[in-house]
Design brief:
Layout: E1 2-4, E2 8-15, E3 22-26, E4 30-36, H1 41-50, H2 52-64, E5 75-76, E6 81-87, E7 93-97, E8 100-106, H3 114-147, E9 153-157, E10 164-166, E11 171-175, H4 183-195, H5 204-214, H6 217-224
Parallel strand pairs: 2-4, 6-8, 9-11
Antiparallel strand pairs: 1-2, 3-4, 5-6, 7-8, 10-11
Helix pairs in contact: 3-4, 4-5, 4-6
């Protein structure tokens, strides 16, 4: 991986089957360069630098088309607000004061550039992680004690595929993105996974148990589906 200012990270990789240099800009995978074995990496870097203007325009085009979800200034997590500010700086910096997070980026860069957006995404993920580690463990303990559940261990992770899970040995995993949900839905997800310490599937007994302690399990489950994990 090579970092090109103004563009962001560029993946450089040799491919023995490649006959020429090829460059692509992907909305999720970023900038990727395929290099034939007979060419050195430095040659590929020079090629990318020559194409820098084209790459940035392509990134902007993907952003305009909605292929890349642009993080705007004012993005709010549960306890913080992120501001993206063009500044007289050489490198991107992130500062936190109380609940305000400021990401300063160089004046010559665009807010939609891969470098700025990637830095913003990393900052937001860290905010969700910090907030989740502060809030979720004590809430799991409280609800487990209140409803008589026993679990083995709790892990809070950057999980994007689901809100949570419970293993066969009663280890509970919760996504940091639970912090995007209102209190009652956070409690629902926690209780959903705690109920799996007793019922290992989603059979009638599971839903009956969960409904008894939440009051409206299916309704809460429907509400959760309106939200998504990730930034």
């Amino acid at each position: 991986m090579w970092h090109l200012p103004g563009v962001g990270d560029v993946l450089l990789r040799h491919n023995p089957r490649a006959k020429r240099l090829s460059l692509s800009v992907h909305p999720q995978k970023g900038v990727r360069v395929t290099i034939p074995n007979f060419l050195p990496v430095d040659t590929a870097k020079q090629f990318v630098e020559q194409k820098k203007t084209w790459i940035i325009e392509k990134q902007h085009q993907l952003a305009r088309q909605g292929a890349i979800k642009i993080i705007e200034s004012g993005y709010k997590t549960r306890y913080h607000e992120l501001f993206l500010v063009p500044s007289d700086v050489k490198n991107i910096t992130v500062t936190i004061m109380d609940h305000k997070v400021t990401l300063a980026y160089p004046l010559q860069q665009s807010i939609s550039s891969h470098e700025v957006q990637n830095s913003a995404r990393i900052a937001i993920e860290q905010l969700y992680r910090n907030e989740a580690l502060t809030y979720l463990p004590q809430r799991v303990t409280t609800l487990a004690q209140l409803y008589g559940f026993n679990y083995n261990a709790l892990r809070v992770k950057n999980i994007k595929s689901r809100w949570g899970s419970c293993s066969g040995t009663n280890n509970i995993n919760l996504s940091i993105y639970l912090m995007k949900l209102p209190d009652e839905l956070i409690d629902y997800i926690i209780l959903h996974e705690l109920t799996h310490t007793v019922h290992k599937n989603h059979g009638p007994n599971f839903w009956k148990h969960l409904d008894r302690i939440t009051g409206n399990a299916k309704g809460l489950n429907t509400r959760v589906k309106k939200y998504s994990t990730g930034v």
